[in-house]
Amino acid sequence: MNNGPVVLLNWVEETIHPQQITISPLTETDLQTLRKEFTTVVKTFRKKVFEQLIFSEKQTASVMKQLVKISDTVHHYLWRLAPCWKRSLSAPQIKSFYLFALNFLEAVLEELGRLAPEILMQIPVTQYSQPNLIVELKGRYKFFELHLDQLDIDDDLKNLVKKGLNQLIQKREINLMNVEYSRNLMTAVTAKEKLDTATFRRLLFLYGFNLPEFFLYCISSYKDVMENTPGLHEQLEMLMTEQDKLDSLLVNCKIQMLTDVASINKQLRGFLSEKKQYVKQMLKLRRAMLKDDQLAKSMIRLKINMSVAQFGLFIRVQIEKGLLLKENIGELFNFFAAHFYTHQTMFISAESLRKKSTDVEFSTAQKLKAHLIAMLNWLNENYNLSNYKGS
Predict the structure, then answer these.
(1) What are the boundaries of each domain within the chain?
(2) Which domain of life is it from (predicted)?
């Protein structure tokens, strides 16, 4: 069986190469003989493939790729080397034969594909069949792009998905799995009249959209939520909730955009598990520090009558005005997170505290301003500072 593709390829190169087929004019009889020879060689090869098909999927995949290569060779003769045979008096007959050979090889591949559909889906489509598929996918993509732009979805996510699908469609060696994936995803999206960012992300999870860029986008989203969640307990709850959402999705693992990359659900579950472990360790460390008598004396935790957002801004004001030095900013926020807590947040996340000190909402700034004014009023009332210039 291993010699089958070689024999067929040799016959193609030695018999129907434009330099060989144009040596002498082709009569109708010659054309019929050539078709018969080609059919016989391919059928002999096909029979050997069928006999061995059940024993080795790997070998079958290799053979089917060879058939694609042979088809691409004939396609090369038909188009790229057309100047060589178009000058021949037998040009119509030669073109007719090349088209016959290409269609016959497509039929053989389709027949083999019915016996081994999973293999057929993963090998490149022939250059002969590719143009029609690409035209169809580009038409679908144009409609998909217009529809997606009208939906209320985060622009970064929209652009990421559009770029990823377009690259898949433009792939040089596109296979039927790529084609089917593109069709299914575009159909699923265009069927939705309304989609928001969260629902769109869920749909992408279901359809195995496992581009590295999408993984990084999801990671960034999770990190933003964590940084805006002040308490370690709340962060842990958020991570558990997100992991439960992924676990509840009935995902078909066989449907993936990139077959050689882990599923997006598996990748994200791994990230969430690592983050959960980190937060648990932080909570465990904080509890251990509170239980340790010696440490407890040196690590008194004070309750502050501010939200975490206000507290973060209060620290930032002191840094910016020089009351706290701009040195080791990370350690500074670690200190405040470890030694203070609020009414709603028993264990403050240092990362969240630092983030909230710079990402400030107007209402937070208003409330802190009220606190600072109240402090100034207290100084004025208790030390008669209002009567002095500059007070």
Answers:
(1) 4-126, 131-281, 302-387
(2) Bacteria
Which residues share a beta bridge with 303? 341
**Residue 321 per-residue DSSP state:** T
SS3 of 193, please?
coil
Sign of the Cα torsion 40, 44, 49, 50 reads positive
Please state the rounded mean pLDDT for residues 146-160: 95
Backbone phi, psi, residue 125, to 5°: -75, 155
CA quadruple 78, 82, 84, 85: dihedral positive or negative? positive
**Residue 58 structure tokens:** 């790997």
Q: DSSP label at 257?
A: S
Provide the pLDDT for residue 103. 96
Given the structure tokens 């958020």, which residue do they identify? Answer: 238
Enter the DSSP assignment of 272.
Answer: H
Cα Rg of the chain, angstroms: 34
pLDDT digits 0-9 by tens, 201-260:
999 999 999 999 999 999 999 999 988 888 888 889 999 999 988 888 866 556 789 988
Encoding tokens for residue 208? 């195995």
